[in-house]
Amino acid sequence: MSRLSFSLAVAVVAIILISSVSVPQRASSSGIPIQHVIVIVQENHTFDNYFGTYPGANGLPPGVALPAEPNGTASVKPFPLNRDVPPRDVCHSWGCAHAEFDGGKMDGFVFTAGSVTTMGFFDYHQIPYYWDYASQYVLMDNYFSSVAGPSLPNHLYLVAGQSGGIVTNDHDTTLSFPSIFDELQSSGVSWRYYAQQYASGWNPLPVFKSFVANPSLMKGIGDTSALASDIVAGKLPSVSYVMPQDERVSEHPPQNVTAGQDWVVGLVDQIMRSQFWRSSAVFITWDDYGGWYDHVPPPQVDKYGYGFRVPCLIISPYAKQGFIDPTLADHSSILKFIETVFNLRPLAARDAAASNLLEAFDFSQTPRAPLILPGSYLAEHYPLTFLASPPKTVQTAVDAKSTGSTILSISQPISGGDLESSLVLAIAVLGVVAALRRFGRWRW
């Protein structure tokens, strides 16, 4: 059998399996047509660092500048980094964050960091696909990290609505307060936490008392590499938390931000191509500010936070199109969304009071087709301008973001259908993968 024939046979078999799998799902009793919530958490960027120049957003103010020394002249201005790899990591501890906050003056970033790096920012040159998502789905520009500090306490708010007073990355203490996974487990809602198996700033679950005492909860932690196979096997749970596959794609400085973006988009593309797209809500956020400058003083709702703004993208067939959402929110708002969809009780005071993010959706609209990236649109133009194309499921498109080469783009998700349509779709998938791997633009 030739290599092409073998590849086509494998693709057709995979698509037939996807189309025929029966997936037991628990329908939302809230009446919201979302059955799958996917929370993708990356590392260490502020809103201004990624979207400070995004059109229409509450980004970098004209003429803003910070002093290089305490009480010095404000002379250090934001500047484009013009590179995929940040030059260095910047202090983002509890102490540094409060010195940078400076009682709400937001002027301590440069002299606290001891570097002008904090004032650098990225844009569509390095993270074009994140900007594409913002253009076609929802970008929140008033969304804050939960704690003015590093990863672990913010991850705790993402899963528990509190950190138990923890403000550092020390994870030696057993945590006795409940997490969302205790609630999901007792309510019969399927879940999975895709991360490394051991306790870390990305994965606090092994130090929760309920996980230590209950091996069935520990089984809910699965390696991030298993997400793709779970999607293909029709086993995507109702609630999924997804941590970086490894440090290289985490976007944690000094890692390559474009590589991290490409990895995330690869995950979202898999969801969009699957049977789960029409019932999904995908949240992409960043755990903490990473030491980067942001100009908006975070409201101090209690003694732990909020911390500085971080980006949050909401992607769903029901997400409003091109909506810049000004709703005040933090990481516990994602918890509140999950609790709202699956009728779960609040875990702590923070998520009880949080916005539930429903304003970002229009559940009365016809479910929108996915935006498979790269796609058939005018690149680096916001909002996206889609190119004229015939109304077919598979279409030829010019992807100026990659290399200027012509590739195949899929405009509809994979679903059941006749064998001929599946074969055409399989060829399209192979074409996309081959092109992206050939030109080295995508990291899998």
Can you describe what's shown?
The protein is an alpha/beta fold and 444 residues long. It folds into two domains: 3-11 and 372-439, no CATH class; 34-371, 3-Layer(aba) Sandwich (Alkaline Phosphatase, subunit A). The chain is built from 14 helices and 18 strands. It has an eight-stranded mixed sheet, sandwiched between helices. The chain has a two-stranded antiparallel sheet with strand order 2-3. Strand 17 (394-398) and strand 18 (406-410) form a beta hairpin. Helix 1 crosses helix 14 (419-439). The chain starts with a helix and ends in a 5-residue tail after the last helix. Residues 1-27 and 390-444 have low confidence and may be disordered.
Index terms:
alpha/beta; disordered N terminus; disordered C terminus; 14 helices; 444 residues; Alkaline Phosphatase, subunit A; two-stranded antiparallel sheet
Number of helices: 14
- List low-pLDDT spans: 1-27, 390-444
CATH C-level name of the largest domain: Alpha Beta
Total count of domains? 2
Euclidean distance between termini CA atoms: 27 Å
Counting DSSP E segments of at least 2 residues, the number of strands comes to 18
The name of the CATH superfamily of the largest domain reads: Alkaline Phosphatase, subunit A
- Our estimate of the beta-strand percent is 5-15%
Identify the quaternary structure here. single chain
Can you name the CATH architecture of the largest domain?
3-Layer(aba) Sandwich
Mean of residue pLDDT values: 83
SS-derived structural category: alpha/beta
CATH topology grouping of the largest domain? Alkaline Phosphatase, subunit A
Q: Tell me roughly what share of residues is in helical segments.
A: 25-40%
Q: Major sheet: order of its strands?
A: 9-8-10-1-11-12-6-13
The rough form would be described as globular
